[in-house]
Amino acid sequence: MIKSSYPQIKVVAVENGKGDQEVSEQAARRLIEQYPDLNGIFATEANGGIGVGNALVQTGKSGKIKVIGFDTDKGTLDMVKNGILSATLAQGTWNMGYWSLQYLFHQHHGLVDSTGGAGGSLPVYTDTGITVVTKANVDDYYAK
Questions:
Q1: pTM score, two decimals?
Q2: What is the crossing angle of helices 74-81 and 46-59, to 10°?
């Protein structure tokens, strides 16, 4: 879908930050060095975003390469607030819990057929929502 909507985008690499800030930082530094015209990075979890952000600061690329992080831990939010990360994605955690409990309730009370029979079944996928967190709304995501 992205390729058809934005054919000018070229994915130059996929790296595994292993959920580790240091590994993600090292991967980002390699990408920045290898691709001097790099325009953007997407990190799929919080530690990755922080590692990428650290690499941007250390290489002087902060504000020059757009980075979208994932999750709303304090370190990630601080980097969005300070303009190091362009944005981060906030998961619909309330909905995750709500729908999980609803599905467990339905299974426990026999309201759905967990064997795949005709009694109705639980959905295979549930969209629990996601919100884009930017400088404009980042303060709403800090723990209060």
A1: 0.84
A2: 40
